[in-house]
Amino acid sequence: MSSIPTNPAFLLDLPTALSLLAALSLLPLASLLTILLIPSTRPKTDRLLFFWHAYDALTHLIIEGSFLYNCFFVSTTIPASAKHSPGPHFLNQPERLYGAAYGTGPTARLWQEYGKADSRWLGADLGVVALELLTVLLGGPAAVYICYLVYKSSSSSASSSSDATVQAAKYRFKMWFVAIGLAVAELYGGFMTFAPEWLSGSHALDTSDPIYLWLYLVFFNILWVFLPIWVLKQGWVEVKGQFVRAALAGKKGASRKDL
Questions:
Q1: What is this structure's pTM?
Q2: Which residue ranges traverse the bilayer (predicted)?
Q3: How many domains is the chain partitioned into structurally?
Q4: Does 1 reside within a domain?
């Protein structure tokens, strides 16, 4: 990481404040959805699982979705007299530059701010765009689906009928199956976002300002390390418990037959 300043020191002006407010507002929104949709009587694991995937979905679909929008629909033309860089070029357009750096809208301004810490997000970095296509188009909907399954599982568990119990179990199976898969994808995606940069000297990362380092690079990314690991841990406990219960039930059934 570069500790040599490549950008002006952090300045909390109005555009910066609005950009940070927009990004951070998704946390209370996810919390509100959790309070409204998941009863407080449900296990804390379910409530945290819903909260995390609600925040995950909002971030992928809104924040990262806006990054893709700027990559595909915001661009500037390179003058014919300018020396063009060698390819490959985004969308095979050597005469154009794409990305938030060339926009003037609110979402472009948001990514211009984050780009002070990681300049790859200012343009249409091929590796980043490829990962974000998977994240937005698959990861976002998967997180929404997990929230739906947590909600349906909670609703079905409220009933004492045997049919509702079976239905709740089916929802929980789907919930953990998708949650485990998404958690692995989140960890892989995070590694592939930063590993190429680390291995090439971290030229795009600016850690000279504490805000750029601890808020932009650490806080806005570390959640996608610790919480997917937590999901995998809880998924392990859930799957292991189901296998143990199934084994015990099988032994009881065999004992009754022997009698």
A1: 0.90
A2: 20-38, 50-69, 128-151, 171-191, 211-232
A3: 1
A4: no
